[in-house]
Structure formats: C-alpha cells, structure tokens
C-alpha cells in the first residue's frame, strides 16, 4: 500500500516526511490512493514572497527565475530560507480509485495542505507571471496524497477570493477555539471580566478573519494593531475591531503600550498575524498573566518566543499556529460571506494586487 | 525609574528587549532596582553546548575560547547560532534598595531567567573549565533586573544538583498543567479513557522530571522514548515510566510507531525534550487528534512544526514550552526530593559530567 502521507515520493533525504524533504518525486503518474491536479494558480506564502522580493530588490524577473529554479530542483515550492510554501488552485485531472479525498475529475479545488509537501511540476515557465505578486498564474501538475486536504471551490465566490481566504483559514478557526475557551471558563466561574483580544496585523488576510472570529467567539473587546496609517484607516472603516491602534510590532514597548491602552488592560488572547521577524517579545508583553499568544506568522522564532516569555517571567501559553483545524475552510468562507467588513478588505486587497 | 525589564542595559540595536539585543552593557554598577551576583558557575543550554562542541570537533580549548569571545563581544552568553543561553549560580554581592526580588547579600542563588538576557562579565578567562562539559566554573559578575527570577539554593541539596533541576524546571510544571487539564476534562465528561503521555527524551533532565510530573498529574499510562540502549536501561531501572521505547526521534515513522505501540494508542500529550533538530513531525504523528504537543527543545523549528501538522491534517495543539510557570522551581525541587527515580538519574548524570 502506498504511504498515505507520501513517504514514497521522498527522494532525499530518505526516511523523512515530504515537508522535511529536500527533494520530492513530482512525476505525474499517480498511485491508487493519490490524486493529480492540473494547476492553474499558485499562491505563495507571504513570508516566502517577501523574502524573495527583498532578496532581488523588487526585480520580478529574478523572483520568477528563482521560483522556477526552486521547483525544478526540489520537486515542490518550498522557499529554502523561510521554509514556507503556499497553496494552489486547479482542476482534478485524475483521482486514484483508492483515494479517500472524495474528489471527482473536473472539480475545481484549492489545496489546503502546504506547497512545502506537495509534489509540483511547472510546465509553462511561469510565462504569465511578472514576479511581482504572491498570486502566480501557472500551468503544471501537482499530486495529493491520501492524507491531504483539498476544498472544492464554492460556486458563489470568485475563485481568487476563495483562494485568498482558504490560504489562511486555519487562523480564524484556531482563534475562535482559543477565545471561546476563555469565554466558557469565565462563564463557568461566574467571572464578569470581559475577554479581551488583540490581533497584531489586524488588517491583513489572517488578521481580519481572526478579528471577526474572535468577536463571533464572544470576545467583549478587540483591538487590531497595524503598522501604517493606510491600514489603520481601512480597518477602522470596516468596523471589524472595537479599536484600531498604530504600532510597530517589532518594538515590544510600543506594541504592549498600544494594546494595553486600547483594551484598558493587557490582552487575554494575542494573535500574531504579521509576517515580519521580531514580534515575539511585544506579543508576550502585551498579554495578561494566564493569557495565550497564538503565533501564525512563519517568521516566528521558536527560541525568541520561549526565551522571551521566560525572560519576562510571563505566565502565558504560547501556541504554534496549526494551519489545520477541522471545519476550518467552511468556517472561514462563512465569515467572508457573513461579514461585509472581511469581504471588503479581501476584495480591496485582491484589486490592489 | 530604571526599566524593570532591563531596557537601559541594551546597547545595540536600540529599543529591543535584552534577549533580542546583540550587545548588553554588563558594567558592574547597579541601578536601585537591580542586583549584582558574583558568579561561580555557568550552566550552558544543552543545544548551545552541543552546537559549539560539534563545530569545534570536540576541541575543548576552542569551545572555551569561543564562549569567552561571545561573552566579551555581547555582554551576555547567547550562542549566535542556537540563540540559546543557559543559567548561572552565584552569590548576591549587592542588592539595590528598590529591587523587588527580596534577595540579601551573601545568599547563594540560581538565576531562573536565561543567560541570553543577563548582563555578564567573565573575570578569570574560564581558566578552571576544560570546555568539555555544560557546567562551567567561572568567576565574574552578572546583573538581575527588577523583573527577573532567582531561586535561593536549598540547604538540603547539593548546589550542582539544584542547579541542574532549576535549569529545566519549567518543563515539569507545564507538563503537569497540560496533563491535568486532560484528566479534569475527561473526569468532567465521564470519559473513562486513560490519559496517555509520551515524553521524547525521557531519560534526560527535563524528560525525567516531565515523566514524574505527568504521572503525578494523573496520566494513566506513560512512555519515555530514548535513542540508545544505555538510556533505555537507565530509565527502565528507575521505573519513572510505564514503558520505555527505543527510537530515533528524527524518524517520524519510527517514533510514532514506538509511541503508539507502547501506549496502545497515540499519545494525548507528547512532550519533546530532546535537543536535536527534526523531531517536530514525529511528535505530531505520535499524537492523537485533539492532543497536545509541548516543545521544550530549543532546537525546535517553528515552521517545521506548523507546516508539519498542517501537512498531516493533524488536529493537535502545539505549545512553545515557556520556561516560566509560577511555582516551577518549588515543584521541580519537590519532584527531585520525593521521586527516587528522578534523583537517581540526576545524580548519575552529574557523576558522569
């Protein structure tokens, strides 16, 4: 039986899982439990795109050349510096008879597992991409294993909009789970203290969804923290947060002051959604004793978080943001449909790309 | 008023917290809310010492020279590659009149905040250290800020034994907190399923304490996973775990098979205490849906954990092991005093150093 987690596609080093592999076998022939997708678009992880963009000083041709080189060398799109990938959209071309994913040929799908573990072959040299945006038009093949996740794209939404939401759909689901735990515990204890939530990077994709999710889960007061005036105005206009604060998340003192002022106390739950390094200490300092920090940014440093909390004698729970929570795709698409503020930010973002 | 978190000691870059700083001001004059410690011993973080040891191919003189160079350049002992530090033992030499730590001149203490944020000056060139062990005899000065933690060394225990326990005392405290949450939730739900706990690296310092903590918190079945026969025999002999399994934690399939076999099911809580990179995927794969992985190793990769869980469609909660939990020092020293198995492993380890 072929490995449900794709071990048979690992070329080197031997014995690791596909995400940890340096190189995968991306040949198009599928095993009975696999599915082959005809790719139409890649969506690069924000941290990965930013690293490539900065490395090449905004030269789109050089960014495109490096993405082609990575995929050709590794059989997958995994940025060797950030370690991150992204996701893709495409059409089911062939579904093995023993695949448990329930997909049918011709269905248009988005993959909800990372590109870092998805065998990928690019056929068109990315000729339709200018290297200047995370959204990459692409003709090629990708392979899904038995234990993968793919969402059939909803008919009522623009596929690019669905893709942008699905790319970050783990964040609102986990935020809702964490916030509702605080709400339930306070209710159970008869404690009337409001549950306070701060979302760092609140105007971005995962940030705006997380703000909406926190409110839905029962947060009594929320603040979205953003780095620039344009984002402050945009987030204020859509009304997704009770307060919007301007602060550099890399400056621990400025960040914690901004959050504590806006919420009139430190946050019970702080959600980090900004893709720049160095936000760990500020997030810890902005969080109340007994609170939780959820790190969704791939730029998070494990050591900085662990040692930062210890060094500040901060009794906070720190979560590695897991991109998978059961029902995450439906929950995020539901927020997009029901929250005009979320939809407005996503559509503005896509229009600007 | 001088900063309680030591901002006034940061030399470069400006505006960051001491742990994130490249260089600290380690001058011996203290502010009214600081404490100066006369250092007698450093205890390097295991991941840091291993990196230095491997880089210099086991040349103790070269390891010593690099430690001296780091402390001289940075004003603190923070390994530039691993980002980690360690802790120290010493005697209170001067306590500022506004220090809230409650320390008195002459008390023998261990610092429970990391060396990565502790201003440090070495005076003796580490002349008494051969560079071949994590325990570093040292004459020098260190500075504690207002928001620091230091434990007065207990009179009934060998100081080296106390230091070894205090160095990892966050692990058993957090393990106990996480395990007891599962025990309480199952009781509340009337669910008789036993709570299963796996500790990867169960024969080590944080591992053996975590096994004892898990059992005390109500774990019904525990397994300690170790990489070599000698550790298997040692851990089996002291009886701290219900089962002991031999597996390479970097091999996800081998690790998850070992855990699942020993516990007769995946673990509800998996605690990672081994200081080698690449254990994230195996830990996730060894953990049940709805379970929790606690990462205590500084060699943990944030991206590997986040993307690994997503790629495996694993609904697991992943915690960044925070070295600070209120009461952690007393709890860990209590385990050492009351669990002969823990004490035996610690004493054997110190004797071998």
From TrEMBL, chains A, B:
InterPro entries in the cross-refs: KDD_N, NAD(P)-bd_dom_sf
One Pfam assignment: KDD_N
The organism's place on the tree of life at top rank: Bacteria
Ranges for domain L-erythro-3,5-diaminohexanoate dehydrogenase N-terminal: 8-154
Official protein name in the record: L-erythro-3,5-diaminohexanoate dehydrogenase
